[in-house]
């Protein structure tokens, strides 16, 4: 099949990025370099992630930190790794991160790009050795380079993304991204230190049989959503919920399914963040032929008004998302 073929002829991520860049002879190559910077940081975070279980027992095999520094949490480490790679790379002027309250101004006014990133999502899963992920969005700044960054460079709707991706640190590590021309997935070959094209041109099934939602909050869902979930049960769909957005999204993207993080009584706008969680996955979903809304409106058209703003998220196979929306409409 296609994926085995791609792997055997060895299309590395670097080669793939280069080939795509050659399709645009006038491109400066900065976006390509930026994607490579992200991939490098990903490899470092992957290494740290694999060691996560060992870090607490490091002393047992002579790995005690000589300075006696406290072990940093992996999500903090990931944030440092990504920010450092983006700073050193030189293409980026500002970073919005889940880990930082304010925008990080990289003081690089010649950088054309703005990044929104969740360096390590699903971090409650780290301690129990369950899949986690990184999510990123790339925007072109709208004000001229050479001048200080402005709020409008940061607060762009998702439909302005020039690229977006996620990394899944799962049984294998995968990087999946789009530049607005389809979605491609790369699997990490640890011993070679390379990502290989393993999932060319990902197309999401139009429908599926998996629904993913934290049903423990059922009683605080709106009535329409409750009815939709009852419908899923009548249909005997499979309930699958890892509690790691990237992992739940990735599975449903490949197999067909819907992921829902709705508004609840406690969180009236949901839990997930528009800028660095929902937008990137919505862009990838649409590029793969799937759908992403807040239950009503397209995620990518939401105009952000604050950095860490939340949004309900209905994302996955188009038919399933449309069906869920129809239940919300009727039962309001
Ligand atoms: P985090 O950014 O604090 O890690 O939270 C985001 C995570 C998502 O990965 C996951 O889908 C969701 O929170 C799970 O939340 P809940 O435990 O409420 O179901
Ligand atoms: Mg997160």
UniProtKB/TrEMBL annotation:
Binding positions (Mg(2+) 2): 118, 121, 277
Binding-site list for substrate: 121-124, 214, 241, 271
Pathway: Carbohydrate biosynthesis
Record keywords: Carbohydrate metabolism, Cytoplasm, Hydrolase, Magnesium, Metal-binding
Subcellular location: Cytoplasm
Species this protein is from: Rhodonellum ikkaensis
Domain of life: Bacteria
Protein name: Fructose-1,6-bisphosphatase class 1
Binding site for Mg(2+) 1: 98, 118, 120
InterPro entries the UniProt entry points to: FBPase_C_dom, FBPase_class-1, FBPase_N, FBPtase
């Amino acid at each position: 099949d296609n994926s085995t073929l791609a792997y055997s002829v060895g299309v590395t991520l670097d080669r793939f990025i280069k080939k795509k860049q050659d399709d645009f002879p006038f491109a400066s190559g900065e976006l390509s370099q930026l994607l490579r910077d992200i991939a490098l940081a990903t490899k470092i975070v992957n290494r740290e992630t694999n060691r996560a279980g060992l870090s607490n027992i490091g002393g047992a095999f002579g790995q005690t930190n000589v300075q006696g520094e406290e072990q940093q949490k992996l999500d903090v480490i990931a944030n440092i790794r990504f920010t450092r790679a983006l700073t050193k790379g030189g293409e980026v002027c500002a970073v919005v991160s889940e880990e930082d309250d304010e925008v990080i101004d990289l003081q690089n006014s010649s950088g054309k790009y703005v990044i929104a990133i969740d360096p390590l999502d699903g971090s409650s899963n780290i301690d129990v050795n369950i899949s986690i992920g990184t999510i990123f969005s790339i925007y072109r700044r709208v004000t001229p380079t050479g001048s200080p960054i402005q709020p409008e460079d940061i607060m762009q709707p998702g439909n302005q993304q020039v690229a977006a991706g996620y990394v899944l640190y799962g049984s294998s590590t995968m990087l999946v991204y789009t530049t607005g021309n389809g979605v491609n997935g790369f699997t990490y070959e640890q011993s070679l230190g390379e990502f290989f094209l393993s999932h060319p041109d990902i197309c999401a099934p139009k429908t599926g049989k998996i629904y993913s939602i934290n049903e423990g909050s059922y009683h605080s869902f709106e009535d329409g959503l409750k009815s939709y979930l009852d419908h899923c049960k009548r249909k005997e769909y499979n309930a699958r919920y890892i509690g790691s957005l990237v992992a739940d999204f990735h599975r449903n993207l490949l197999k067909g399914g819907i992921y829902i993080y709705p508004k609840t009584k406690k969180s009236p706008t949901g839990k997930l963040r528009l800028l660095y969680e929902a937008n990137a996955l919505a862009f990838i979903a649409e590029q793969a032929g799937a759908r992403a809304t807040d239950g009503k409106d397209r995620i990518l058209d939401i105009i952000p008004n604050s950095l860490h703003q939340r949004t309900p998220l209905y994302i996955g196979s188009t038919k399933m998302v449309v069906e869920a929306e129809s239940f919300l409409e009727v039962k309001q």
